[in-house]
Specification:
Number of domains: 1
Order of helices and strands: HHHHEHEHEEHEHHEHHHEE
Strand content: 25-35%
Radius of gyration: 18 Å
Helix content: 40-55%
CATH class: Alpha Beta
CATH topology: Rossmann fold
Largest sheet: 8 strands, mixed
Number of strands: 8
Shape: globular
Distance between the termini: 40 Å
């Protein structure tokens, strides 16, 4: 497995440029209760400016654009942004910028709302990412992070992160809630609201989104099938006629604000 931070961003570009269309159509990304909750959690208004980090297929940008003045949909991968811009061409207030989430090219205190959905597990330096978010967020702004998380249990953590890495070499790490809380505390962000969820993933769609080689897919299947019974139970792995149908992962939706006491 590759864990080098310098190589990881190259891996992200390679994977997402190759699979750009699948992330637009992915049921995991295009659907979900979290998308429907965005307006009520964020209370967007017509004078607001939004930064959507690692926009991918642009699902958050699309959801928020009708409510706000401007959305900056950013991503590390040019091909992904080009494809998303084509799909969202009727939204005149979405601007597309190639951006590294760990080095945001914006002035301090620029955005009313910052979002990052199902992407941070690809970032090799999450502490730097949070530092940058805190820097460009307005004093009264809101930051919404939605991502896959690892359980606090080390065995279950190791399983899901290893599985994700086998399936997608651009995966870096799904962090636990305690890890994220440490990142937030270090950079003076406080939790306003949070919601944990068990997200069901249809196995074939999930594995075929990043893998095409039969041997690679078989490797993922065998890793799951050979897992212990307690792991199968925790991740709610459904197997029928020796074929994996679906499984669940832990997802966290957390709304944060700046701690103005610092």
């Amino acid at each position: 497995m590759r864990w080098d931070k310098m190589d990881n961003k190259k891996d992200v570009k390679a994977v997402f440029s190759r699979n750009k269309e699948s992330y637009v159509k992915s049921s995991t990304h295009a659907q979900g209760n979290d998308l429907s909750l965005l307006p009520s959690w964020l209370n967007p208004t017509q004078e607001m400016s939004v930064l959507d980090i690692a926009t991918g297929g642009g699902h958050v940008a699309k959801k928020l654009a009708p409510y706000v003045k401007t959305v900056f949909a950013t991503d590390l991968t040019r091909e992904m942004l080009d494809n998303t811009a084509s799909h969202l061409k009727h939204y005149n207030n979405i601007h597309y910028v190639i951006v590294d989430a760990e080095d945001l090219p914006f002035l301090d205190n620029s955005f009313d709302i910052i979002t990052c959905r199902i992407a941070a597990h690809h970032f090799p330096n999450p502490m730097t990412f949070i530092k940058e978010v805190q820097r460009v967020l307005k004093a009264d702004g809101k930051f919404l992070l939605i991502d896959n998380i690892a359980p606090e249990n080390q065995k279950y953590d190791q399983f899901i992160n290893s599985l994700e890495k086998i399936r997608d070499y651009s995966h870096y790490r799904s962090h636990s809630v305690s890890e994220w809380n440490r990142f937030f505390k270090t950079h003076h962000l406080v939790i306003d609201k949070e919601k944990k969820n068990k997200k069901q993933l249809p196995f074939k769609e999930w594995v075929n989104r990043t893998l095409a080689n039969k041997a690679d897919i078989t490797n993922v299947e065998q890793y799951i099938l050979k897992s212990s019974e307690d792991i199968k139970k925790y991740y709610q792995i459904i197997i029928k006629d020796e074929e994996i149908q679906s499984f669940t992962i832990d997802e966290w939706m957390v709304l944060l604000k700046k701690d103005l006491s610092f």
